[in-house]
Write a structure and sequence with these properties.
Radius of gyration: 53 Å
Strand content: under 5%
Number of strands: 8
Oligomer: single chain
Largest sheet: 4 strands, mixed
């Protein structure tokens, strides 16, 4: 025994005080982080408030709705163009325009020339019988008419005067023309007036002519107006009547008027355009919709016009007041959610990226609400429902309920809807969110959508009946909302991979895919280090049971346990579980070198996980499953060798500790304990229940005293639950077996 002075050794790594410059830099970094989060929140509040406020007060009425009070005009007055009345007046003006006719008077002029030739023939004949037979056959003159013409021509210069009087007598017929039997289309047959212009004449206003004046049957009447005008052209009315009697039968065969359709439509269009718009004036206090009256298309138009008029007349101070109120209300909701996050979601509160993602999700949801709210499909619930479900998948249902509450309130503010719409939106979305605790199958998302759909359907009917809404409107709204709720599950399933990438999460579906034995890393682990693989499977079993005991993510722990020791496959024979039947590789190595190899499997495992694109949550479990615990075997061996060698240097405990970090989550803490007790239990020669219980308690107490659970959030009650679960699991693994008698050979 040596009685010399013993060297003092540090039993644990000493913490050095931080340098002032490092503390100052850390303080600056924290301030910058707080400022960055405040800036993100400020931008999100302003953007969301702008979306909630929109362009002014929302229009809250819908087709088929029954208001519980009278709806009156709240502006000084507004005008609505009465299109029906204006169209009626325009059509009346158009109907006043007579059909346009084009007059080609050449046939009448030819008739006048023929009559003049007949007069010349009479002048040359001595008697009626001496007229040429063709002339008699064509004109059929009587003795009276022959004698009247003959006597008129007997006067000196009468021939020249008669020609001028004939032209004057035919002038009215030349001017107005003759209407043929089919000159007018059927649509114009009821017209009593015609609008006539001469063929080839310059453009100008046509002249109106009564239809009866140009009808051939009226023109041929010997007592008609044309006959009187014809007779008035002569000094002797009897002569005029006689000549008119000769030409009257020929008017029916010489139609000169043709219908001009384009000109008629042009004149009528001009008549329509001459009528100004007609407006109905509504003044303040006028009733637009009676109480309990169903809002129809006519009422919804009036309500919309009154609303637009009110918005356009808002003074600047009212606009600013409304915008400021929106900012305050939205900021209050953000503050409420922020307080919840600060108290209950430290992982989100400390991460600027997660804060920005949550704020971006809220802004995007409100933008979609504002876009979809203009339609009558009730599709505004889709972004709200999807946002709540996304947060439930990414974090937890409680956080999702807070986000859903804020979104429902802001949606109601943006749409101006009442408590009924809020209850439908909140109730249906929360029904889906609360069932979205863990996503292990694709059908789970469809069931979540169906649950939301059922909630929307029931609450729509409940609130609608309470508000005395008509049944057709309730049927429409309930079916639309139920359909969108069901589609929300499909939308969530299709967007799940993008959600995982955006929020850096891993769902149960992805974890189950990773836990497939055909994964390349697991296949390589089985081939290179079968003992480690067996150890990992056992750790996964007992850790999953412990996680379920305290309500942690059991699936994440199980899959993480499969991969937590993959770094050992690079140097498998340096680990005891893979040294079956071979020499110990550490026998000829210094304890410090052995320690480097042992703790190196953590870094190697994390590197392999990153190379194979494993989720960050699995990588965290790989890096934290040993925390900063001490590699006791080699530390004690190094201490023993140091005590035997007086010239040896002090053994620093920090060199024999894992690099960490300490477990940052409950899942990592459970995996650390499960890994330790499973490895230690293999050293028990007789794993009786009492020995297993003592071993587990010792391992947990040692890590508790070492501070390994300080950062993972596990409480003492939960640690006790974990201990009990691990003891039961290990006792089940190492349970006693019946010893069978040896078989004897015959």
């Amino acid at each position: 025994m040596s009685f010399g002075k013993r060297r003092t050794r540090s039993t644990r790594a000493q913490l050095r005080p931080a340098r002032p410059i490092d503390s100052q830099q850390g303080l600056i970094a924290r301030r910058r982080d707080r400022l960055a989060r405040a800036a993100v929140l400020g931008v999100a509040v302003l953007c969301t408030a702008a979306l909630v406020n929109g362009s002014g007060p929302p229009f809250t009425y819908r087709l088929g709705q029954r208001p519980s009070r009278e709806l009156r005009v709240n502006v000084e007055k507004f005008e609505r163009r009465n299109q029906m009345r204006a169209n009626t007046e325009r059509q009346m003006e158009a109907d006043k325009v007579p059909p346009a006719m084009v007059n080609d008077p050449s046939p009448i002029r030819d008739l006048a020339d023929q009559l003049e030739d007949f007069v010349d023939a009479v002048a040359a004949a001595d008697s009626l019988d001496s007229l040429p037979p063709a002339v008699q056959q064509a004109w059929k003159p009587t003795e009276v008419s022959f004698r009247l013409i003959k006597d008129a021509l007997a006067k000196p210069g009468a021939r020249e005067g008669l020609t001028g009087r004939l032209a004057r007598a035919f002038a009215p017929a030349v001017r107005d023309g003759v209407l043929g039997p089919e000159a007018l289309p059927r649509t114009e047959e009821a017209s009593r007036t015609l609008s006539i212009r001469d063929a080839g004449a310059a453009a100008g206003p046509p002249r109106p002519v009564p239809r009866e004046r140009v009808g051939p049957e009226r023109m041929a009447r010997l007592d008609g107006p044309l006959a009187r005008e014809f007779a008035a052209a002569f000094d002797d009315p009897a002569l005029g009547h006689a000549l008119f009697g000769l030409v009257a039968p020929r008017f029916a065969g010489i139609p000169t008027l043709t219908f001009d359709g384009p000109l008629t439509e042009q004149l009528r269009e001009a008549a329509r355009n001459s009528v100004r718009d007609v407006y109905d004036i509504y003044r303040r206090g006028d009733v637009l919709v009676e109480q309990d009256q169903e809002i129809g298309e006519e009422q919804i138009i009036l309500l919309r016009m009154e609303h637009d008029k009110a918005v356009s007349e808002m003074p600047p101070w009212a606009i600013l007041r409304r915008a400021g109120s929106a900012v305050v209300m939205v900021a209050s909701l953000f503050a409420l959610v922020g307080y919840y996050v600060h108290r209950n979601e430290p992982a989100v509160d400390r991460d600027l990226g997660r804060v920005a993602s949550a704020c971006g999700l809220v802004v995007l949801a409100m933008a979609l609400v504002r876009l979809l709210a203009t339609q009558t499909w009730d599709a505004e619930l889709v972004p709200v429902a999807l946002s709540g479900m996304i947060v439930a998948v990414a974090y937890n249902p409680h956080f999702a309920m807070m986000i859903t509450f804020a979104l429902c309130v802001m949606t109601n503010l943006a749409m101006g809807s009442g408590i009924g719409h809020f209850m439908v939106l909140m109730g249906g979305t929360v029904a889906g969110v609360l069932t979205l605790n863990e996503v292990r199958t694709r059908t789970k998302l469809i069931k979540v959508g169906a649950t939301s759909a059922l909630g929307y359907f029931i609450l729509t009917w409940a609130t609608g009946l309470w508000q005395n809404q008509p049944t057709p409107l309730l049927v429409q709204d309930s079916l639309w909302r139920a359909g969108w709720g069901l589609m929300g599950g499909f939308f969530l399933g299709g967007s799940l991979p993008f959600i995982e990438g955006a929020f850096g999460i891993v769902t149960g579906i992805s974890l189950l895919e990773l836990g497939d034995i055909t994964h390349p890393l697991l296949q390589e682990l089985v081939r290179r280090a079968p003992g480690t693989h067996n150890h990992s499977v056992t750790v996964a079993t007992i850790a999953e049971a412990a996680a379920e005991r305290i309500g942690a993510n059991a699936l994440l722990i199980r899959i993480g346990a499969y991969f937590h020791d993959i770094g050992k496959m690079l140097k498998p024979h340096y680990f005891i579980e893979n040294q079956t039947g071979m020499a110990n590789r550490h026998a000829n190595l210094a304890p410090a070198m052995s320690t480097l190899i042992i703790i190196g499997h953590v870094k190697d495992g994390a590197d392999l996980a990153r190379q194979h694109h494993l989720p960050q949550s699995i990588i965290d479990l790989i890096e934290q499953h040993h925390g900063t615990t001490l590699v006791e075997y080699f530390y004690r061996e190094a201490t023993r060798r140091s005590e035997c060698d007086p010239d040896a240097a002090d053994v620093l405990e920090g060199l024999f500790r894992y690099p960490g970090p300490r477990p940052q989550s409950k899942e990592a803490g459970i995996l650390m304990v499960a890994d330790a007790v499973e490895s230690a239990s293999r050293t028990l020669s007789e794993p009786t229940p009492s020995r297993i219980e003592g071993l587990v308690s010792e391992m947990i107490d040692k890590r508790l005293r070492d501070g390994q659970f300080d950062e993972c959030g596990l409480t003492l009650r939960e640690i006790a639950e974990i201990r009990d679960s691990l003891i039961k699991s290990l006792i089940g693994i190492y349970h006693g077996r019946v010893k069978y008698p040896q078989q004897r050979t015959a």
